[in-house]
Amino acid sequence: MKKYLCWSMVLVLLLALSAGCSNGNNANDNETAPNESAVNNQEEALPENFHAEGFPIVDNPVTLKLMGMKYPIQGAWEDLQFFNVLSEKTNIKFEFDTPASQNYAEKKNLAFATNSLPDIFFGGSLTPMDEVEYGNQGVLVPLEGLIEKYAPNIQKLFEEMPDVKKTITAPDGHIYALPKISTIPRGLALKAWINQSWLEKLNMTDIPADTEAFYELLKQFKEGDPNGNGEADEIPFSVQNPSMLTTIILPAFGLVEDGNKIGVFNDKAEYVPLDPKYKDYLTYVRRLYEEKLLDNEIFSHTQQQYTAKGKENKTGVFVAAGPFIHVDITPLESVGYPYLPPMTSPVNDHKIYPVSTGIARGAFAITKENKNPEASIRLADYLYSEEGAKLVMMGESWEWNADKTSWSFVSPIDNREEYRGGKITPDAGGTILPYWTWSKEAMAFAAKENNPQGNYFNQVTNDAYLPYGVTPFPMTYFSEEEQARLNVLLTDLNTYVDQMNAKFITGNIGMDQWDEFTSTLKKMGAEEVQQIHQVAYDRWNQG
């Protein structure tokens, strides 16, 4: 009996303990559930003072600190029409931190290092590594959730241009910065122009379609005194710097490369200087250089000296955004000006040409210091709208003509860009801002600008370059480990290639040293660079 009673008491005690543990767990569940619910409710609830749709974005003013790159052409951002109009519409006030363009990278890096962050990097020129590193650290706020809730224009962009979302999504799956999208054709391809007065002086009408015809054109320019001054001072072909040769001439040999000398061919990443056709390219350029058909000062002259040669009517084929920038003609006289199209060569019978995607990453990012991320993403989304895009590009300083078939920029002075940058918008001068020139509606509007030379440059790009356009390498992200390794390898590799290119072209070394050159590239890690880019490309391609 005592034994039975003892075991009964033990059993009761165990049951009690079990109940206690169970009740304790339930109590904990009851404590955490409201907290989780509160968090969820807090996430779902709209911030006080904020409108998810319509304008103003906030009822009571909030202030956001913006950090962006300021170019010399621009006036103080607080005085620009763009920000004043934007503030009035949204009820968002702005404070500005705008380091000069030449100092911006240093100031931006210092802001990250010292945690002296703005609320928004606006025209912030963040690098892909900035996004990966500071996104992983929580310094930059992931944007995809905010976009889904509050940014219909950005969502429309992703639907119509799916490569954009793929291009701005970091390896961890988050979007940390928004891009500038500008598909206005004239900005998508660098172009070489042929001196029209020289063609007319020599009664030449044929435009070269391959490298041999180009060589013959340059020979006639050299020997025919096309500038008519009786002196042998003509420079048949000039570029501002040697890298432009890889844009204008290298494609004729079936190769294109990005800034790190990488290209993709049949889905395979390649360090382009390893390709045998690169030797053919250098051999051809060397021939032009030796015969003084190519400017022998391309490795030493300044931008000002290069431009001066054109204004003095000494260059025959040249590279510029528009011919009026280089030769002594008016912008309107650029309409119909002859250009050098993509070419073929004895080793390549199909035309290709490097073109830009029109996507510039790292333009707009929200930091952890920002107390108004919802209002901030709505601010960005507005700039991807038709109205917002026009505000970025022209402010309110434009008008339709009488029958609304074209529009013109309204400026009290002749220099459109200087006025636009000095008084109207930070877009002038090169600042990267997110806006809306990617859509059909935007392109239709842009085509109606009363800008004959701009429309001609668009036509040339559309007709002669974009049909053969390829992107050398997509804008991928690298992991921190990949990027760290590339930083080590590419600095020395690209410096070595640039030095050797100059030696090959100028004749300081013979082309018989090609095998030694490529062997050295492999020893320096060129094949590892290819492998890292292949992994990143495959990851991007699966996007």
What can you tell me about this protein's structure?
The strands form five sheets. The protein has a six-stranded mixed beta sheet. Strands 6-9-5-10 form a four-stranded mixed beta sheet. The model is unreliable at 1-44 (pLDDT under 50). Helix 6 (152-160) crosses helix 7 (162-168) and helix 11 packs parallel to helix 19 (480-506). It is an alpha/beta fold and 543 residues long. A hairpin with a 2-residue loop joins strand 7 and strand 8. Helix content is 47%, strand content 11%. It starts with a helix and ends with a helix.
Shape: globular
Number of strands: 16
**Which quaternary structure do these chains form?**
single chain
* Share of helix, binned: 40-55%
Secondary structural class: alpha/beta
| Mean pLDDT value | 89
Q: How much of the sequence is in beta strands?
A: 5-15%
State the major sheet.
Answer: 6 strands, mixed
Counting DSSP H or I runs of 4 or more residues, the number of helices is 21
Low-confidence stretches: 1-44
- Cα Rg: 30 Å
State the end-to-end CA separation: 75 Å
Neighbour order of strands in the largest sheet: 2-1-3-12-4-15
Write the layout of secondary structure elements.
Layout: H1 2-44, E1 62-67, H2 81-90, E2 92-97, H3 104-114, E3 120-122, H4 128-136, H5 144-150, H6 152-160, H7 162-168, E4 178-182, E5 192-194, H8 196-201, H9 211-223, E6 235-237, H10 243-248, E7 262-265, E8 268-271, H11 276-290, H12 303-311, E9 315-319, H13 323-326, E10 339-340, E11 353-354, E12 359-366, H14 373-383, H15 386-394, E13 398-400, E14 407-409, H16 416-424, E15 436-437, H17 440-446, H18 452-465, E16 469-470, H19 480-506, H20 514-523, H21 526-542
Parallel strand pairs: 1-2, 1-3, 4-15, 6-9, 11-16
Antiparallel strand pairs: 3-12, 4-12, 5-9, 5-10, 7-8, 13-14
Helix pairs in contact: 6-7, 11-19
